[in-house]
Amino acid sequence: MSGWGETNVKESSWGKDPEPTPIKKESSWADEPTETIKMDQLEKEIKEIKKHPHLAEVEHDVQVTLADSNDIYHSVSTFEDLKLKEELLKGVYAMGYQKPSKIQATALPLLLADPPKNMIGQSQAGTGKTAAFSLNILSRINIAQKTTQALVIAPARELARQILDNLREMGKFTQVVTSLAVPGAIERGEKVSAHVVVGTPGTVMELIKKRQLDVSKIIVFVLDEADSMLDQQGLGDTSVRIKNVMPKTCQIVLFSATFPDHVREYATKFAVNANTISLKQEELSVDSIKQFYMDCKNEQHKAEILSSIYDLLTIGQSIIFVRTRRTADYLQKRMTDEGHSVSSLHGDFEGADRDKAIDDFREGRSKVLITTNVLARGIDILQVNLVINYDMPVDKDMRPDAETYIHRIGRTGRFGRQGVSINFCHDKRSFEEMKAIESYIGREIIRVPTDNIADIEKILKKEI
Ligand SMILES: Nc1ncnc2c1ncn2[C@@H]1O[C@H](COP(=O)(O)OP(=O)(O)OP(=O)(O)O)[C@@H](O)[C@H]1O
């Protein structure tokens, strides 16, 4: 049986044709594999990892482009080099950070320089972008001035809460006051005057419109997950409306692990004359996440394989990404009936229920989180060692979505930790989606046979 498997993926969703994927007979979900995963090769690789049990250095090449070629720029190697205020330095060390990660060492000298310059910063998932923009914010706040001076917007409620917690933790020895601006967090008519406001774009815009939030003194405006925040089919309009009411002089900071070409172009107009830190295409995802896929026979078989994985393995914590809310509900019921402690979180849930679901998972009360793309980005839970793409990510036009894939798998393997991701393919289409993504990110996704659960166990136990 060959059929579709003989043709290569010709089109990609991101407007750029990927390099043609060499046809590998053994990799088709439909073909009888002539060759499955090479266990000895994999074992060798795993042994290499085991030699380095500590966190891998969060190092990768980044490219720095200065807005002004006359500027002189040096990255730093310690937090002291940044000449941070004493209380901030104390906060950083209290969080257990010993030295800046690559993105922090590269971005912070540029962010902290005076006069402030805009920044478009890219670095892989889990490499410490939050601390980079948070330290800049905390350094710039004038405590004596009781007005909002920094605004951070992020695409999801859970991410906004996480950023706020991070800022509070880092700034706990300072007098900086912070406030959350997500649905239900601020009473009707209540004025917001915290030094730093972190929120989702819709709520922030509402607060501005209703004059509950005065943005006239804002000096730093951060868009986390900036490519998603600027997406013209999504949150882009609201982000632009917010930017248009910001003081013209405010420093605009855009951060993300991904900046597809069309968004990058737009980003340079949104944050003009920005210093830029960017990644090479082949460095978009980190090495410490081992990527696998499984051929399933059909939708039903996917659910069975999922059950087998969880019945068999003692997995720390894991996230299962699905395409629709219905699938999330179905899997949650099925897995709960099978005795697993599962949370589910998607757009049908209201504020308090969403908070409970993520808090239960964050604090380990539930071990499995089933979710849609709403949690694909930014969520930082270090214990997550497995991500399952039960459904491959697709964009609004149902084309393979490599950016979302990169963010989804980035929920594991945080800050140099090891992680595993498994993609489920169950038909020609999902297989092609996976292959297109593999080609885009330039990293091999290894096939794991579904017919031998013992093999799966062997592979995953070593990885997780
Ligand atoms: N210098 C540091 N030393 C040790 N740990 C750090 C350091 N900087 C950040 N971390 C930790 O690394 C983890 C990942 O950081 P963070 O969430 O900021 O990543 P990110 O780059 O924003 O990821 P994403 O693209 O997924 O949003 C967090 O748990 C954070 O506390």
Automatic annotation (TrEMBL):
Motif position, Q motif: 77-105
Annotated transmembrane regions: none
Reaction(s) catalysed (UniProt annotation): ATP + H2O = ADP + phosphate + H(+)
Record-annotated DEAD-box RNA helicase Q domain positions: 77-105
Coiled-coil residue windows: none
Enzyme Commission number(s) of this protein: 3.6.4.13
Protein topology in the membrane: Peripheral membrane protein
The entry's keywords: ATP-binding, Cytoplasm, Helicase, Hydrolase, Nucleotide-binding, Nucleus, RNA-binding
Domain Helicase C-terminal as annotated: residue spans: 288-461
Main location: cytoplasm
Subcellular location: Cytoplasm; Nucleus membrane
A GO term, aspect molecular function: ATP binding
Sequence segments annotated as region (Disordered): 1-33
Compositionally biased residues, Basic and acidic residues: 13-28
Family of this protein: Belongs to the DEAD box helicase family. DDX19/DBP5 subfamily.
Protein's name in the database: ATP-dependent RNA helicase DBP5
